């Protein structure tokens, strides 16, 4: 009798460190992607270190808010068989980025779905009507579109130290005066951990993030996750008076 194969999708969101997906030996070359606006396409490597497993790969870019497939980018090849011990360079191609803001970064998510081939029944399971279950792995990483006008590595690194802090009734509010997304790591308030494991402290361009804290914060320290997933040196800032607070004109 025919066996029924059920495929369940396991979703993984990667925020830092080398991407090693133990299941099936799959790994992505990066944990985040920055797409410079002056490029027509960029590459992302996917490696299959398994000696046995074969995967079908499908990639797409999704909108950050709706998680719907974005029309701004397309990933090629649309479907790829990645054999054991091999690797492939997926290409992310810009299609319709003219409508995106030209003065600040835009956030998307790149999805790479790895689909296992249908398991072949063994002789002992020929009469098994229960079927089997296979897991597909959907890996999701951030994709930052950086317009050509602000492609400047020195400006990006300078933004790490430009974060400002202000007192807030709920704790402390961080303000990002730059046009870049800034993802914080190992954030501390008064030398105590303020960022739990897996918490995503990300400041949007010209945006703010409020961190809960009891009492008046005296200092905030943090690292920034860079374009290639590395951690910056630690920065320490002191909250400024709220009267000196300024925002960027939207």
TrEMBL record:
GO terms for cellular component: outer membrane-bounded periplasmic space. It is found in: Periplasm. Residues 1-22 form the signal peptide. Its main location: periplasm. Residues 25-150 form the Pili assembly chaperone N-terminal domain. Gene3D superfamilies: Immunoglobulins. The keyword Chaperone applies. The keyword Amino-acid biosynthesis does not apply. Residues 175-232 form the Pili assembly chaperone C-terminal domain. Keywords: Chaperone, Periplasm, Signal. GO terms for biological process: cell wall organization. PANTHER family: FIMBRIAL CHAPERONE PROTEIN ELFD-RELATED, PILUS ASSEMBLY CHAPERONE. Belongs to the periplasmic pilus chaperone family. This is Molecular chaperone. It comes from Edwardsiella tarda. The lineage of its organism: Bacteria, Pseudomonadati, Pseudomonadota, Gammaproteobacteria, Enterobacterales.
């Amino acid at each position: 009798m025919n066996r029924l194969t059920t495929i369940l999708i396991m979703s993984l969101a990667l925020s830092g460190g080398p991407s090693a997906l133990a299941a099936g030996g799959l790994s992505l070359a990066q944990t985040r992607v920055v797409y410079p606006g002056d490029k027509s396409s960029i590459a992302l490597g996917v490696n299959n270190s398994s000696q046995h497993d074969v995967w079908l790969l499908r990639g797409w870019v999704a909108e950050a808010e709706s998680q719907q497939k974005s029309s701004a980018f397309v990933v090629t090849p649309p479907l790829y068989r990645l054999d054991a011990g091999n690797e492939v360079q997926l290409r992310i191609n810009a299609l319709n980025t003219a409508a995106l803001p030209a003065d600040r970064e835009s956030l998307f998510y790149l999805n790479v779905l790895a689909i296992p081939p249908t398991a072949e029944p063994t002789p002992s399971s020929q009469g098994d009507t229960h079927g089997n279950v296979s897991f597909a792995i959907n890996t999701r990483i951030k994709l930052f579109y950086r317009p050509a006008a602000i492609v400047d590595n020195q400006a990006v690194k300078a933004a790490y130290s430009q974060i400002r802090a202000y007192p807030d009734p709920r704790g402390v509010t961080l303000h990002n005066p730059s046009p870049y997304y800034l993802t914080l790591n190992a954030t501390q308030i008064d030398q105590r951990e303020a960022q739990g494991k897996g918490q995503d402290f990300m400041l949007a361009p010209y945006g703010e993030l409020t961190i809960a804290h009891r009492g008046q914060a005296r200092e905030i320290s943090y690292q920034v996750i860079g374009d290639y997933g590395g951690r910056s040196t630690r920065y320490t800032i002191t909250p400024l008076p709220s009267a000196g607070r300024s925002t960027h004109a939207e």
